[in-house]
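About this split. The held-out portion is used to measure sequence recovery: a designer receives only the structure tokens and must propose an amino acid at every position. Recovery is the fraction of positions where the proposal matches the reference. Here is one held-out target exactly as it appears in the evaluation file.
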């Protein structure tokens, strides 16, 4: 079985392309995943094929990456409008990183919104590989009525719902065809000495030889050929499918590519798991592509027994049939198989680094509808994070509630729907509270005596403490300068413990940071003093000193790396400044052509707004990662509002 992925931005006709390709010689068999990955099996030229129709939203890029992990080649569908080329940038970035041989298909050429050469030029800004035209459109006025193949130098006229008709190259297209063909041959000659010599000697190379060279350079992933058509009318589909059949590499090439990327012996690679989801009453279903022989139900795979092997087309198990190399199948009751992963018979190998999904930008607290659901939610989210690497599950620091980090609002909505439909857990979501701290602005000294008599042995401890602001980022520190044994050495650790307890909540209601506490004097009682008494005295004394130390609210500041196509870079300084952030600088992204990386400091309270604004300003393409950098002071009305809101929330709970 040959396998390819069809990917690209939303509204570029990917699903229509798959449908038309699958219907060229019969009726395709289709299955769908809850995550939006559609699998279509069909036959073409007496060969079995599997098309993975990847979801279009940028928030589903993780599933696109995983589909490429199992694909011999891919088709990138793009718009015929030059100004929409930037929408393909994330997909070109993934294709380049994965080293997957790619055919670029400019769809909907029957409704062109710009010149083809402008579309290719705009897309080239995001591709290291040369985008090489293999066809040019034939026009009648403003309409595109056919295409001309630059290798065979034959022309076809489109016919609605039928195979295109072979025609002579129109005179109006002859000059353009000659110019484009020369450009094609010049690029191909860079990878073939024989062709270069033919061109130098001004000899016309035969079409068969050019097809062979073109096929080889695609299999070697040297160029990205460009084909055109209109899937909704069936135009260009046969040519596209023939290009896949003759030029896409076999499954052995995929095995070698994956082995090289993960430093594994390719002879040991048996399969690759690339997608998984949960189904009611069935459990986890893992989609696997066989890379070697010997896989069947009960056989060893990934260090444990492979569960029931099901056909994707009808969901039926057939334990008597062993998937052949290249076959795609569903494995049930194989929960030991992580997704995605490379699989030998005895072990699970981590996938290549390029499969790492973008950092989730949307953080939300999930609130279950009932106490029963609350007990199930944590376990269920752990299961879902195993099948969706774009999802991260944490706990909110202040409440311990379930905190999910999703790629965006669409991803979050799909997650909530899965919780309801499959696991019968209804949830609502809310924005998590930013993590604030407080410190003191001025030093103070306190003398605190703890005395308590309740019958029998009493409690006595007397401490004199100096509390001072620490330098930023140093945290809490404790020291002592007592002399003469006024506070016995065995009680000093209790004094430190009491001071640390006082830091858990300051006068503003938040954890206290960057404070130095020094014990410099005190008294003890030979009978009534104890560790408990000194810990209590220290805690109460420090709390009193904090209330006298001019408490200051501290907000978290995160160091963010913002990844965006260069065409959007001009707006970023204004976006960050509007969020009270600071741009530290930017560089070209060396790993992705046409992208920039901005480094900025952004307040934690503005991260949600940054995600929303960035999605809006970059048509959903830009994303950022963040790491905590430091806390900084926050004053004025904004600080007062935060303190009041925190107090109100505390009272309500």
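Reference sequence for scoring:
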């Amino acid at each position: 079985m040959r396998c390819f992925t069809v990917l690209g931005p939303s509204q570029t006709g990917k699903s229509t392309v798959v449908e038309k390709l699958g219907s060229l010689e019969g009726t395709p068999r289709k299955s769908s995943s809850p995550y939006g990955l559609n699998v279509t099996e069909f036959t073409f030229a007496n060969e079995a094929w599997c098309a993975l129709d990847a979801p279009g939203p940028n928030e589903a890029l993780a599933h696109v990456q995983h589909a490429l992990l199992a694909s011999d080649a891919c088709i990138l569908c793009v718009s015929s409008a030059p100004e929409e080329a930037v929408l393909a940038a994330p997909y070109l970035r993934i294709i380049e990183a994965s080293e997957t041989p790619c055919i670029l298909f400019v769809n909907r050429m029957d409704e062109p919104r710009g010149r083809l050469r402008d579309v290719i030029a705009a897309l080239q800004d995001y591709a290291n590989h040369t985008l090489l035209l293999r066809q040019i459109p034939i026009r009648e006025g403003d309409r595109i009525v056919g295409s001309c193949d630059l290798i065979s130098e034959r022309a076809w006229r489109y016919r609605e719902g039928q195979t295109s008709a072979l025609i002579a190259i129109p005179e109006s297209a002859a000059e353009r065809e000659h110019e484009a063909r020369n450009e094609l041959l010049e690029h191909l000659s860079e990878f073939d000495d024989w062709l270069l010599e033919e061109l130098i000697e001004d000899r016309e190379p035969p079409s068969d030889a050019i097809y062979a060279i073109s096929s080889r350079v695609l299999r070697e992933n040297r160029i990205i050929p460009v084909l055109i058509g209109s899937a909704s009318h069936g135009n260009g589909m046969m040519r596209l499918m023939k290009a896949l059949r003759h030029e896409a590499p076999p499954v052995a090439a995929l095995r070698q590519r994956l082995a090289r990327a993960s430093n594994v012996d390719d002879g040991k690679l048996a399969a690759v798991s690339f997608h998984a989801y949960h189904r009611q009453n069935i459990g986890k279903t893992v989609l696997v592509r066989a890379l070697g022989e010997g896989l069947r139900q009960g056989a060893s795979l990934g260090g444990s027994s492979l569960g029931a092997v099901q056909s994707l087309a009808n969901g039926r198990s057939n334990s008597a049939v062993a998937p052949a190399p290249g076959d795609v199948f569903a494995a049930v009751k194989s929960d030991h198989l992580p997704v995605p992963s490379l699989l030998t018979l005895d072990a699970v190998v981590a996938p290549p680094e390029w499969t790492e999904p973008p950092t989730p930008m949307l953080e939300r607290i999930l609130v279950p509808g009932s106490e029963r659901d609350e007990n199930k939610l944590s376990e269920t989210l752990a299961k879902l994070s195993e099948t969706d690497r774009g999802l991260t599950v944490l706990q909110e620091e202040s409440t311990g509630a379930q905190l999910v980090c999703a790629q965006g609002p669409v991803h979050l909505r799909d997650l909530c729907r899965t919780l309801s439909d499959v696991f019968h857990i209804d949830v609502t979501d809310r924005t998590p509270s930013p993590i604030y701290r407080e410190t003191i602005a001025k030093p103070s000294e306190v003398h605190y005596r703890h005395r308590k008599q309740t019958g029998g042995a009493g409690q006595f401890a007397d401490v004199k403490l100096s509390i001072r602001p620490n330098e930023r980022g140093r945290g809490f520190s404790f020291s002592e300068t007592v002399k003469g044994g006024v506070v016995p050495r065995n009680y000093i650790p209790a004094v430190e413990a009491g001071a640390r307890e006082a830091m858990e909540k300051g006068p503003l209601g938040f954890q206290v940071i960057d404070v130095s506490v020094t014990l410099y004097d005190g008294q003890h009682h030979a009978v009534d003093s104890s560790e408990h008494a000194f810990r209590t005295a220290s805690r109460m004394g420090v709390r009193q000193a904090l209330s006298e130390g001019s408490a200051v609210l501290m907000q978290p500041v995160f160091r963010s790396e913002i990844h965006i196509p260069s065409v959007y870079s001009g707006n970023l300084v204004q976006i960050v400044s509007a969020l009270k952030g600071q741009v530290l600088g930017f560089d070209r992204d060396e790993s992705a052509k046409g992208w920039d990386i901005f480094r900025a400091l952004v307040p934690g309270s503005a991260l949600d707004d940054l995600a929303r604004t960035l999605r809006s300003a970059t048509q959903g393409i830009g994303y950022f990662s963040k790491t905590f950098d430091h806390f900084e002071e926050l004053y004025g009305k904004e600080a007062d509002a935060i303190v009041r809101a925190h107090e109100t929330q505390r009272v309500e709970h």
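Annotator remark: The longest strand covers residues 551-565.
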